[in-house]
Amino acid sequence: MRTKGMKTMGVLALSVLAIACGEKKTTSDTQAKEALEQTQQELQHMATGASATASTQQHKKGDAVPKELVCMVNDAYMGKQQLEVMHQGKMYYGCCAMCQSRIPEDESVRVALDPFSLEQVDKAEAYIVIIGNNGEVAYFKNEENYQQFVAEAPIN
After folding, report:
1. Can you give the pLDDT at residue 58?
2. How far, in Å, CA of 57 to CA of 45, rounded?
3. Which of 9, 16, 138, 147 could make a disulfide contact with 39, Cβ separation 3.0–4.6 Å?
4. Given 3-state DSSP classes, what are the helix, strand and coil percentages for the chain, each rounded to the nearest 5?
5. E strands within the chain?
6. Which residue numbers in the chain have pLDDT < 50?
7. H-helix or E-strand containing 22?
């Protein structure tokens, strides 16, 4: 799995480099640098999947996890302190600069549906639980909703 992801990232990086080199004739150096930085951020995002998988060693599926260890853009338990993003008096967390800029700009990454009640919850206030083998998380309104969810549909 890891080699497939690394091959994909390598192909993407080479493609971007080729495109960036071709674009230098028609775009400014600033635009080329911005495109390269964006691609580097996207590559970093792709690599976070491997980080999330490795980090679940500390916590297992079904465990509640601290908010500061979750990338709220990728909805993934990362197992280490994430970058803080204060927005409207609430603290959110992201794994990279792209996440930091997206959190205040995109409401959809700040909210989630509680899997039990189907209510919209603010990720900064949610009870967060690992629900997948690769560090995927779900956001519950509170621990009680999570316990009721597990009672009806246990997390395997």
Report:
1. 79
2. 20
3. 16
4. 45, 20, 35
5. 70-71, 76-77, 83-87, 90-94, 111-113, 120-122, 127-130, 137-140
6. 1-27, 35-36, 39, 41-43, 45-56
7. helix 2-23
pTM: 0.65
φ, ψ for residue 23, nearest 5 deg: -75, -20
Angle, helix 29-55 to helix 97-105, in steps of 10 degrees: 100
Contact between residue 64 and residue 101 where contact means Cβ atoms under 8 Å apart: no
Task: Please report which helix (H) or strand (E) contains residue 5, including its range.
Answer: helix 2-23
Q: Which residues pair with residue 91 across a beta bridge? A: 86
- Token pair for residue 142? 């509170």
Query: Whose structure tokens read 């603290």?
Result: 91
State how far the Cα of 101 lies from the Cα of 97, in Å rounded to an integer: 6
The label of the residue with tokens 């009806």 reads 152
